[in-house]
Amino acid sequence: MFYKLIKKKCDEWMDSADCTIRELIQYIYVQNKMRDAQVEAIKIYLFLKIACGNRPLWQLFTEGRFNSLDFNTIELTVEARNILSTNKAAAALLEYSLLTDKNGNQLAPELEKVIKSQSEHINYEDVFKKIFYEVNYTDYLFSLPMGAGKTYLMAAFIYLDLYFALNEPDNPAFAHNFMVLAPSGLKSSIIPSLKHIQEFDPTWIIPEPTASNLKRMIKFEILDEQKSAKKSNLVRNPNAQKINNHQPLEDLMGLVAITNAEKVILDRVDKDEDTNIFDKEELAKIRIANELRDIIGRIPHLAVFIDEVHHAADGEIKLRQVVEDWTKKHSFCGVLGFSGTPYLEKAESVKLTDSFLIKNTDLSNVVYYYPLIKGVGNFLKVPEVKYADNDMETIVKNGVKEFLDKYRNTVYANGTCAKLAIYCGKIETLEELIYPLVTRIVSEYGLNPTEAILKYHGGNKTYPQPEGSGTEFDSLDTDFSKIRIVLLVQIGKEGWDCKSLTGVILPQKGVCPTNMVLQTSCRCLRQVVKNTDETALIWLNKFNADTLNKQLKQQQNISLQEFNQGKHQKNIQIERFSRMDKLKVPPIDFFQLKVSYQTLTTEEHPHTTEKLTDENIFVEADTTLIHKQDLEGKVLGHYLAETETGEYISFRQWLYLIVKESFHTLTLESLKKYEDILKNIFERITVKDEMSNSRYDNHYDQDNIRSLIRKAFVPKRDFSVKEEIVPCKASLLQIERLVSPISVQDDKPFFPSQDIVKTIVDWDANALNKVLSPEELALIEKMKKMGYPVPEPTDPHPERKQTYHYLPYRFDSGLEREFFKDSVLPILGEYKSKLEIYFNGDDTLTNFKIDCYKQVNKEWIYIGKYVPDFLLLNRKDDGTIQQIIIIETKGEGFAAKFADRRQFMETEFIRKNNERFGYERFRFLYLEDTLTKEEREKKTIKAIKEFFNI
């Protein structure tokens, strides 16, 4: 449940001025390719990376990073209040104890009592370390149900990390390379994982051309070789050889290697360990695994993704030991786990006090959780679950007949036909009981059993594996497969991605492992066609139904009845329309300040050797002088603050860093010409540890030294600054970006509602024909012929003639929505045909964006783009724009962040434009949420009367 605290803080960050990803998330929404579960996971992921520095969870909670508790609302003793108000870790655990479930029941009331009464006896930092498995690296788990697209989410994380890593190559939060560990228990899981990552389109989350550039960067390696490479004098392990081919490893970026977890968690054999306890085959496997593990540990800026993380449970401790070893050797970004079932079979206990244990049946490192029930009817089929306390054959008979009655003729839009899976437990049961029974039923429905039924099992002495069954099974989700019923033994419990599977029958105990009844039952819930009403049928015996109900309560906090009803609200489809032609909205003419810099070379040669050997290149870091005094102010002495040794760096990495920081205007080849001199510099500004590894000497200003080295390779230059005022023309709508429909869970940001949108569009098309019945239209024509006056129907939305250049608008803030709906629309009604207002605040749709600059001394510095919220305007008789009021609505928390841009708009932009137009063409109106609604209206009306002379 810790993820609830993380989600709350993430939402606050997304709404704050500190959020740097708002435009990126808006782009993802507009693309409309990612599911709501995936987009919300991306928000959490980037929040933890950017706002939280990608630090371990125990550290973040200990530091109080997710705290928001108001102690004034809680009854506490003086001692407890003193501790909780100063110890952020204690406050974090108390806030966790106060969390409630969906029914409002407190989850840990006893924990709350212990914290309040025994805080002075609790080592909170130690408790959080144990809660989060005592790991010192980043270890986050994302929990999404099957069908939510976990592998696509992995691909999204890979591309996002690379995107940010290219912009900030030295930021340790972002990975450069990735190791994907497919489920160990699923031997055939590597290729599907690779396929989904490869087919992911990065333009769904990152704009072009960056998306295509990132896709070209990625290099895939499948580490699935079983035998040693022949004639290899580098490595004995062919999987290690694949990684070793990417030399130099220090410069590697964009590697995505996929393997099974078991290949890297085998027991380690050290040099001094007794190897006689292993036979030759075991020893060979272990040494090969050690070799792969060692070379993986040398991959820089590595992130490890574990798919279906619960499969790694048996080797979890070993895997953590391996990762700990990697973190000591090289830069390491952490572990990300993905699972639809983030629970433990046995509760874990963490000692809080001598008399109290914190018990948890969920994996505590879950940072994002999307419940199964939210997916039902959204991206999952809506299930109908039935069960009976009958014998196995009766349940199969009833289930097959009901499936054929409902889905016999169901063919999905992609050409696949609906299928039913029956889990049989044993091969003999399948061959001797289920197959003959299903054959009879299928024949009764007029189907050919040979074409409609697939038997798939591994075979035994009596019944070999059916010929061609593996190929048929792999082809089930294709439009040429005619199979309707699949009979299975020990296959298809999880990891089986067959979207056209529409029904499941678990007719007796033991047909699947008891702890996997939920996963197996849900195999048929994957949606075939996005945003369609699809259903599924699940038939169980009484034992499996009780087990399913128990697992739903334990893992999803819902009952079988709630699951069966599947009442989760579907995503809402928002239809969007352009009205630019209807309103004949002209482009905005304006003048924009442009600042350009011209480079002037002031020397003919760079004199590289002289500059590199100049002693002034060794710039020392700023030192801190600490003054020591007693309480009376008497000075006891002075001393310099000691600096710790910096991060590990190799000479080659250092050279590559210089190249990267030059934006590749320098090359490694040009640096190598001066390798001896550079090596002398490197050795002087680094120190070696006992293992002879180099680390930065923080007594030197490393950034400044690298800058001076780069300068040594170019002739001295000077810059001349050129300022000019450029005429521009911008459209208020980039029609090609107005995607329709878009699928959302929450339609509150959109205004007006879809009903009003449809009404306005109908009136635009043909008011009378759209809003009147045929009888009413006939009566009007008859009245016209008879010479009677015909009254015009009342336009239900007359504001459509003064606003809505596209429909609907999407407001990012409640202030924008309130101002437009409650203040602007009534004002428009007072000034019909005189004023128009258009929302310009969606920066993914508008072209009217203004470059802003800040003057420092005599030069202008670019500070970013400004996108006006609203444009209130009037027109000349010829339809061109006469005057514009730029209206900005800002919450108090955002005011400081945009203060420089607002100042530029209020002064330079307005002044320069009005000078060039020769009259007051623009005015800027700023409305902050510190004003009341009435004050904002009053200020707006005053500006309208003064500016437009109304």
Note down, in words, how this protein is organized:
Keywords: ATP-binding, Helicase, Hydrolase, Nucleotide-binding. GO terms for molecular function: helicase activity. Residues 135-342 form the Helicase/UvrB N-terminal domain. This is DEAD/DEAH box helicase family protein. The chain is an alpha/beta fold. 38% of the residues lie in helices and 20% in strands. The chain is built from 34 helices and 33 strands. The strands form 11 sheets. Strands 3-4-2-5-6-1-9 form a 7-stranded parallel beta sheet, with helices on both faces. Helix 31 (814-830) packs across helix 34 (933-947). The chain is globular.
SSE order and pairing:
Elements: H1 2-14, H2 22-31, H3 36-51, H4 57-62, H5 78-86, H6 88-97, H7 109-118, H8 124-131, E1 139-143, H9 150-167, E2 177-182, H10 190-199, H11 210-217, E3 219-222, H12 238-244, E4 255-260, H13 280-296, E5 302-307, H14 316-329, E6 332-339, E7 343-353, E8 356-362, E9 366-369, H15 372-375, E10 382-388, H16 392-407, E11 419-423, H17 427-444, H18 449-452, E12 453-456, H19 469-474, E13 485-488, E14 501-506, H20 517-521, E15 535-541, H21 542-556, H22 560-565, E16 572-574, E17 577-578, H23 580-583, E18 588-601, H24 608-612, E19 625-629, E20 635-640, H25 651-661, H26 668-672, H27 675-684, E21 686-688, E22 694-696, H28 702-711, E23 717-730, E24 742-744, E25 750-751, H29 754-771, H30 774-785, E26 806-807, E27 809-810, H31 814-830, E28 836-839, E29 850-856, E30 859-866, E31 870-875, E32 881-890, H32 892-895, H33 899-917, E33 922-928, H34 933-947
InterPro entries: Helicase/UvrB_N (IPR006935), P-loop_NTPase (IPR027417)
Organism: Parabacteroides faecalis
Protein name: DEAD/DEAH box helicase family protein
